[in-house]
Amino acid sequence: MLRFVFSLGLLFACMAPAQAQNASAEELVRHMAADVTAQVRKNPELVNSQTQLAALVEQRLMPRFDFNRITQVAMGRNWPRASGGEQQQVVTEFSKLLVRTYSNALASLKDLDVQVRDTRANGGSDVTVRTQMIGRAKPVEIDYSLSSATGGWRVYDVTVEGVSLVTAYRDEFNGVVSSSGVAGLISVLKQKNAK
Amino acid sequence: MTYVARSALAGAILLAGLSLSSAAIAQNAEHHDPIEPFNRGVFGFNEVLDTVAFKPLSTIWNTVLPEPVRTGVSNVFGNLDDVFIGANHVLQGRGKDAMTDFSRVLINSTVGLAGLIDVASTQDLQKGEGDFGQTLGVWGAEPGFYVVLPLLGPSTARDTVGRVARVASDPRTYFAPVWSYSSTGLEFVQVKADNVGNANLIDSSSLDKYAFTRNLYLQRRAAIVQSGRDAAGAH
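Structure tokens for the assembled complex are given below, as produced in the milestone run.
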């Protein structure tokens, strides 16, 4: 009996930090969503200005994203083949492209509210916070994958209605790298960002 | 050799060849796109058509018609679609979901004035997701090769079979041609106009629009089939 109580105690002791971890990832997502919604409500003109939206995304959301990991996954097998300098350049250019993608998406998702559905532990320091945006006939499901491996929760993938953003770029990156190398990828990204 | 034995042998060789080639493909890429050059051609054709015809049409549609009218048109087609969504949920063994779909049709066709107003969504009867391609997937069919259809856009071998089933089971197919075509055409323009935002988003975020679109389509379809399987398992 004593052993049972002891192991139960041990189990709870192990579970408590894990739960606290999940809660803080969830808190972060909730905070990010509330923050952006509040900013847009305060200044409705924001959604009409691409530069202002991009600035909002860059200041408020991007510090919470792990661009190193995002770029690494998107590049897949080509990541270790690139030099340190090239890797850094791809990270910089790709994050610019993502800021733009994200702010464009935000403009079309105005008037919507974010609700956190639940948080799933993926093992290790890895969780998925599942949310939905309500306000239209059909809610839009958005899942945030977060990791605390590098200290503090950071987002490393966003999945919209079952479509992973990082995976979406992997095919493209692969195609560009196999036809024109990592240097080609950097120049294509630069061109895209200059437009 | 008898006819039966010969066809069995031919079948075995074909199967061996197929499994070999699919193993090779699985190693090379995540997608199965053996007719990529052809697909890219059709994709380019669709892009031109979008630029010269559908984008201008969508712009006119979105500027000329007031929001309530556009929503109404979208709802009428959505109401018709709910019948097919319900039928597919039945085929997938999702009785409860099918009940929701058919209740939506019943409410929206009456209280919702022949489908113009989506009353059901305000009554906690949420629109489902279901089509014949998904049903085939839930039954275990693989997506097969990726194909870009003229006008219609991204699809797979499985989803194309699903589309044919949809057209064949749509009563509008058997209307007098003038009604059949004008209704289908109207629905087409409405869907295009609804998706202008998404199309622009893909334009601004992709490096190779063909590869990006293919990836988005295949991921989305896989998610739809998976959610169908989950729901069928929960029933």
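Confidence is low (pLDDT under 50) at residues 12-19 of chain A. The CA atoms of residues 18 and 139 of chain A lie 29 Å apart. Further analysis is deferred to the final report.
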